[in-house]
Design goal:
Helix content is 10%, strand content 43%. The chain is built from nine helices and 45 strands. It has a ten-stranded mixed beta sheet. It has a six-stranded mixed beta sheet with strand order 41-40-43-44-38-45, with no helix packed on it. The chain is globular. 51% of the residues are buried. It binds sulfanyl-(tricuprio-$l^{4}-sulfanyl)copper (K7E) and dinuclear copper ion. The site of dinuclear copper ion has 8 residues, from loops.
């Protein structure tokens, strides 16, 4: 016992000592290739080669960069409110953040996966996970907006998510924390973990036409931590692989108590088999509560529905769905190579990288080359599943991606480097320092059948001394490498938003060709849309006042409103009548406790406002839309509660005094 424990403790000590600071590589300053500047220079007016979607971690957002320039193109609110876009503040978008716990305007967003067809990126949707209040989102890449969010019941810390199958049949969501199931009494002692805490992996189906998600079934598993995953492809189609840790089933001081065993497991899931059982009605229906939120580009509004049931398949009762493969020391990344034959497990505390063979795993299952079981799940003998080990690759392996040319690239958090190795002979071919302590790395299409093996981006946790200081918090960084040759070349680094974890990238054409430019005003089905200036009006319904307002360069209609009273609930329903690309109008009213709104051409959005005091309240456009943008403004008069001022509204009706001034 002592013998095993000692190296672990010293490695843990190494993490504590070097982990936060990162081992600072030598020659940090002059590490770029000589032609680096030319390789990342995108001349003014020219487009980037690729879109890069980067998770925001604790920002809850997704950011979009151009590669190779590293220019930030857009920030997409996903599990977050965003005052810049009015996301989560407009009445239409609020339901997107609804959950069974009420409105949750923040989330911890780690992983992204682009939709695939036949194992290749198809450019339709981007899926994103949320850890804290388990959710999966689908982003529509026509509009670069969050189109759908589904909450995951029976789950806590949705980390091994949202990884997709080769034809986007399913997006998976594996729980990080094991917890008592939602329909059971959760009011149990924490030290009853072994008895009461369970893990789940959820399979969410994705409709091939419109991408709509549906929680299909959940696999019930022994209590432990599920970390990361990737689906099989090619020969391993129909399988999914999950890294797990805490097979010790510890519930306290995990840094020690979950690092005791020499090996944890990679879980091999035959999802085709599970699907068969599900379709044959073998699962158990259990009551749960979870939100399912959808945004419609027709009504320009979101709806939130509370779902009440899920199907659970207990893997104990179906022994041919899952198998455990021992994997050294708390594996983190679980990555499948483009051929679908090799599965790489990255043990955070391991001094080697094991590579498993799918065909050997199949043979071991057929021949029952097992080494007992874990919670009723057969454990395949390590050697029987192993293709080989990469020896002495570095310290603290986390994640691996592939270039499609037979090479794998692994990040090493502790030794702060990327290591390139050959899948065939498991030899280290090259290593390059990163600045510092990379988490994920990304090769465009690097987790698909067809990687675009030209660039690699490392997402670094620590940037001490890399950028101008900005107070106690420093930006994290992305570092772009050229991997087209034998040796990796560092081209550029640029700060990133939030804490990037996983990322995806795709040749620009695949997405840009379908990008939405405007919403057709004739197709606007918003119940409060105003079709044309002539239809603008103000309607009182009790203490609710609905303002049907239009916007076009450069005025609101109406722009003078009277008859609003203290205590009213005022709804500004703003319709942007423009039908030109890139002509949004903004809207703000003094004292509103929400955000501004940014309304796209052809769209309607609503701002709710409850004035607390009588007076004159200016409104104005917040987006510089024309030369006379600054003239795009108006006034709202708010009267006392008992006032008899009637509702009135107008546009272009000046006072006599002002008009006579004009005539002079
Ligand atoms: Cu390694 Cu959450 Cu994918 Cu971060 S996780 S690095
Ligand atoms: Cu409309 Cu500025």
């Amino acid at each position: 016992m002592k013998k095993i424990l000692l190296p672990i403790l010293s490695l843990t000590a190494a993490i504590i000592l070097f982990g936060m600071a990162g081992c600072k590589p030598k020659n940090a300053g002059d590490a770029t290739g000589s032609d680096a500047a030319a390789r990342v220079y995108v001349p003014p007016g020219k487009y980037d080669e690729l879109y890069n979607f980067v998770s925001g971690g604790f920002s809850g957002q997704v950011s979009v960069y151009g590669i190779p320039s590293g220019r930030l193109l857009r920030v997409i609110p996903v599990f977050s409110v965003d005052p810049e876009k009015g996301w989560g503040y407009s009445e239409e978008t609020k339901p997107m953040l609804n959950t069974s716990h009420g409105e949750v305007p923040w989330g911890d967003q780690h992983h992204l996966d682009l939709s695939q067809t036949n194992g290749e990126i198809d450019g339709r949707w981007l899926f994103a996970n949320e850890n804290n209040t388990p959710r999966v989102a689908r982003i529509d890449l026509k509009t670069f907006r969050t189109a759908e969010i589904i909450e995951i019941p029976n789950s806590a810390g949705n980390h091994s998510s949202p990884f997709i199958t080769e034809n986007t049949e399913y997006v998976v969501a594996g729980t990080r924390f094991s917890v008592p199931m939602d329909n059971e009494n959760g009011d149990v002692p924490i030290d009853s973990y072994k008895k009461n805490f369970k893990g789940t992996i959820s399979f969410i189906s994705v409709a091939p036409t419109d991408g709509e998600m549906k929680l299909a079934f959940q696999l019930l598993l022994p209590g432990m931590n599920f970390d990361l995953s990737h689906s099989g492809k090619g020969p391993s189609s129909g399988w999914f692989f999950f890294s797990t840790y805490n097979s010790e089933q510890a519930h306290t001081l995990l840094e020690v108590n979950a690092s005791k065993r020499d090996k944890d497991y990679i879980l091999a899931v035959n999802w085709k088999k599970a699907e068969e059982y599900f379709k044959a009605g073998k699962g158990k229906k259990v009551p749960v509560k979870y939100a399912h939120n959808k945004y419609s580009d027709e009504t320009h509004s979101a709806t939130s529905t509370m779902e009440t049931e899920t199907t659970v398949i207990d893997v104990k009762d179906f022994p041919d769905i899952v198998y455990m493969i021992p994997c050294p020391k708390s594996p983190h990344g679980c990555d499948v190579d483009p051929s679908g034959e090799y599965i790489v497990g990255s043990g955070k505390l391991a001094a080697l990288i094991p590579v498993f063979s799918f065909s050997k795993i199949q043979a071991a299952i057929t021949n029952k080359t097992f080494d007992g079981d874990y919670g009723g799940i057969p454990v395949i003998k390590y050697e029987a599943a192993l293709y080989g080990e990469v020896k002495k690759p570095g310290l603290g392996p986390l994640h691996t991606e592939f270039d499609g040319k037979g090479n794998a690239y692994t990040t090493f958090f502790i030794s702060s480097e990327i290591v390139k190795w050959s899948i065939k002979d498991l030899k280290v071919l090259d290593r390059h320092a990163t600045y510092y302590s990379p988490g994920h790395l990304m090769i465009p299409g690097g987790d698909t059948k067809k990687p675009y093996g030209k660039y690699l981006v490392a997402y670094n946790k620590i940037t001490k001394d890399r950028y101008l200081p900005t107070g106690p918090e420093l930006a994290q960084s992305a570092q772009l490498f050229d991997i087209s040759g034998d040796k990796m070349k560092l081209l550029a680094d640029y700060p990133s938003i939030g804490e990037p974890h996983y990322a995806q990238a795709v040749p620009a054409e695949l997405i840009s060709k379908n990008s939405t430019k405007i919403f057709k005003i004739d197709a606007n089905k918003h119940p409060y849309a105003t079709m044309g200036e002539k239809n603008a009006k103000v309607v009182r319904e009790g203490n609710k006042v609905h303002i049907y307002m239009t916007m076009i360069r450069s005025h609101f209609s109406p722009d003078n409103i009277e008859g609003i009273k203290v205590g009213d609930e005022v709804y500004f329903h703003l319709t942007n009548l423009e039908q030109d690309w890139d002509v949004p109008h903004g809207f703000a009213v003094k004292g509103a406790t929400t955000a501004e709104l940014l309304i796209m051409p052809g769209e309607t959005q609503t701002l709710k406002w409850t004035p607390l005091k009588e007076g004159i309240y200016p409104i104005y456009c917040t987006d510089f839309c024309s030369a006379l943008h600054q003239e795009m403004q108006g006034y709202v008069r708010v009267s006392t509660k008992g006032s008899t001022v009637p509702i009135s509204f107008s546009l272009g009706k000046n006072s006599d005094a002002a008009d006579s001034l004009l005539k002079k």
